Amino acid sequence: MWITSSLTTALTPTAVALGNFDGVHLGHQQVIAPILPKPVTAQAQALASSNLEQFSNPDTSSPNLDPNLELIYPTVATFNPHPREFFSGQAWKLLTPPTEKAQQLSALGVQQLALLPFNRELASLSPQEFVEKILVKQLRAKQVSVGEDFCFGHKRAGTATDLDAIASAYGITVHIVSLYKRQEQRISSSIIRQSLAQGDIDQANRFLGRPYTLIGIVEKGQQLGRTIGFPTANLHLPPDKFLPKLGVYCVEVSHTPESSNLDTNLSSHPGVMNIGMRPTVKGTSLTVEVHLFDWSGDLYGQTLTVSLQKFIRPEQKFSSLDQLKAQIQRDCEAARDFFG
Fold it and tell me: For the whole model, what pTM was predicted?
C-alpha cells in the first residue's frame, strides 16, 4: 500500500472512500467496497506494481506497457489528526492508529491511504472548495464512496447528498452507502468504543468483523510475574491506542512478519492478558501484560499482535501475592476452558 500525507505525491487517478474509518469495522467495509476493483488484467496489475515501485524507487525504469491503459487507484482518504482531536485540543484515542489502519485497509484490497492533514486551512474549506481542491485537483477522483451520514466542509455544512450534487458536475460518480446494521443496531466506532469500555468483547468483535487487537513491542517490566509462576510479556503500545476495560482477558497472540526471527512459531498462541494498574503490588502506571500458555522463549523486542477473545473479570486488589497467584491460576483455567 502507498501511504501519503502529502497529496502532491498521491497516485492518481483515484476511486476514493471518504471518512475517518477508525476501526475499519463492518460499516466502514461497506463504504469501502464500491471503490475496490473488480478482477483486473495482468497488464493492469503490472502497471500498478510499476507505479508503486517508482514512487518508492524513483530511478526504476518503466516496463513496456500499453500507454493507453489508465489504472484507477482504490484510495481511502481520511484525516490526520482526527477532527475531534483538532477541535477539542485533546488527544483522541483511536481504535486503529495509522499503522494498524493501514494494515486493515491493505488486507481489504485498498492500494492507497491518503492522510489528509486536518488543519485550519482544510477545516475552513466550503463543501464546494473541498470537492474542487481535494477531490478534483489533488486526487483526480473518478468515483467517491461515503456513508449516508457523511458530512464535510466548513462546520460540516455539506451532506452526502450535497457531495453527490457538487461532484456530479465534474463527472465524478458518488456512491452513498446506507448505514450498516446488525440486529437492528447501527454499527459505529462510538458503539464499538462503548462495548470495549464495558468489557463487551463479543459485541465489539461482531461489529468489527474480527477480534479487537493490541499491537505492541515487548519491553522489560519489573518481572514480578515469573516470581509467582506466571511470566508475562509487557507490551508497549502506541500512545494513541484505545484500551478496553481494565481487567483480565482471554487472548490469542501472534507475531508480525517482521518478527519472524522467533525461535518458535507464535501464530495464534493462547493466553491471558491483564490491563491495569496492578494495585496488589502498588503499581503506579498502566501496564498491558500477556501470559502465554506453555511458552518459553525470549520475546523482548518482538512486535506481538494480541487478539482479544473474551473478558474474564475486572481488575481487583488482593491482600496478598498468594491470593493474586490463586486468582491468576483460576483465570488461566477459565481461559483454557474457553479455548477448549
Answer: 0.85
